[in-house]
Amino acid sequence: MKKILKLLVLVLVIAFLYFGFTTYPKLDLISGFSAKSVASGHFLDHRPLDLIQKTDNDIKMIDLASNSIDEAGKFVTSNVYGLKERKAIYREGLGATLINDDFDVSKPYLLPKRAKSKALPFPYGNMDPVDTLFSNVDYSKLKKAVDGSFDKNAGKTKRTRAVVVLYKNKLIAEKYDTGFTKDSKILGWSMTKSITSSAFGVLAKQGKIDIYKPAPIAEWKNDDRKNITINDLLHMNSGLEWEENYSTICDATKMLFQAEDMGKVQMDKPAQFKPNTHWNYSSGTTNLLSRILKNQFKTQQEYLDFWYSAVIDKIGMNSMIVEQDMSGTFVGSSYAWATARDWSKFGLLYLHKGNWNGEQILDESWVKYTATPTNTSDGKYGAQFWLNAGGKFPDVPRDMFYCSGYQGQMVAIIPSLDMVIVRMGLKEEDQGFDFNGFLKGIISSVKK
């Protein structure tokens, strides 16, 4: 009996040590992710806690968190086995922000000024779309392709939440998973990067910024980083050190779930390579771009307003909220929420080479720049947009370029077919969702 007890004690000690070395360091990130996810999902999109925990947060390790919503105080607290409690607050007009113990919740804050879209049918407004039938569209085939991207009988193999298809400026297909509608706001994750790029595109059109000049960062002027341009940053080709691996503790996860000033995390990284010689995907780079953008304005109010007046509300994406970090900088890498319809409007802006219903929001040259392959990216990346130039999706036209986000968010822009396809969900290619087959099915329903 003594030997059995000693063995049990030994097993418990080993288990405790294993937990300490492997899991405990991750608890802060786990509870941080969970608190932020619940706060955004609940207060922005009115999802019940149970739905968020069973869908958004049913990720390995994240599902260890216990979450509590304070409706009156508009905040969420999360912990793992009572350890490492984190808090995310919600502010109307700003969305949710993950905070630390030093954050002053009583401090006054500014809100972006918003403008409503014109009373026009979707997609150029928010009224009901005009019914249009195209003789060259096989609608039964289209419906089959869209339906096939959703799970049946509460399965979790495809996990699509929303699909919207625009063809020749008209809505030809739309479908939502149970619990979601055309009014549901869905997190775009890294599709937000393309919004950030567009803000720079507007500044460039206005002649207020030269992306080919060295980035305006004083801390870089006396070292190897002094020659890094905004162009290099937009192309993810700066040569700065960065690790982006969401399966472990890395630069990206520490930035999103611990940093007060997310843009500063990448700014403080050393150069590993010369600019324009080594492509490396970095959410830190995009948040640094957001920080650079912030410094182009004299006041915080001007910075807040610009994102919406220049791009978001300009094209009627009135549902969109871009959330901030603790420093008041937009998390340009990851935190834009919008309806699937509004995400499709963004695709339509790029489909029409920066023109929105007769008004040139972005120069055509900017859209071409966006969709031109970055040096060393093997044809897969442009300026904060992904590309199919290298044939990633073999059954999809090579001119397709797209916004892409964690868990398979996509706004696909296909100029040769005059088409925009939006898919929002919880699974991506390496997790079993067949994007090539999904896109192929929709494309094949339209005869040229």
What features would you highlight for this structure?
448 residues; alpha+beta; six-stranded antiparallel sheet; four-stranded antiparallel sheet; 31% helix
Give me a quick take on this structure.
By secondary structure, the chain is an alpha+beta fold. It is built from 13 helices and 15 strands. The chain has helices at residues 2-22, 27-45, 49-54, 139-147, 192-205, 230-234, 251-258, 262-267, 283-294, 300-312, 340-351, 364-370, 435-443; strands at 66-70, 75-80, 83-91, 95-99, 160-167, 170-176, 186-187, 321-322, 336-338, 355-356, 359-360, 386-387, 401-405, 409-414, 419-425.
Describe the structure.
The protein is globular and about 80 Å long. 31% of the residues lie in helices and 16% in strands. A hairpin with a 2-residue loop joins strand 5 (160-167) and strand 6. It is built from 13 helices and 15 strands. The chain is α+β, with helices and mostly antiparallel strands. The strands form four sheets. The protein has a six-stranded antiparallel sheet with strand order 6-5-15-14-13-12, sandwiched between helices. The termini are far apart. The longest helix has 21 residues, at 2-22.
Strand content: 15-25%
Mean pLDDT: 94
How many DSSP-defined strands? 15
**Cα distance, first to last residue?**
79 Å
H/E element sequence: HHHEEEEHEEEHHHHHHEEHEEHEEEEH
Q: What does the largest sheet look like? A: 6 strands, antiparallel
Q: Portion of residues in helices?
A: 25-40%
Could you list the spans in which at least 5 consecutive residues all have pLDDT below 50? Answer: 15-22
Structural class: alpha+beta
C-alpha geometry: globular
Instruction: Work out the helix count.
Output: 13
Q: In angstroms, what is the radius of gyration?
A: 22 Å
Spatial order of the strands forming the largest sheet: 6-5-15-14-13-12
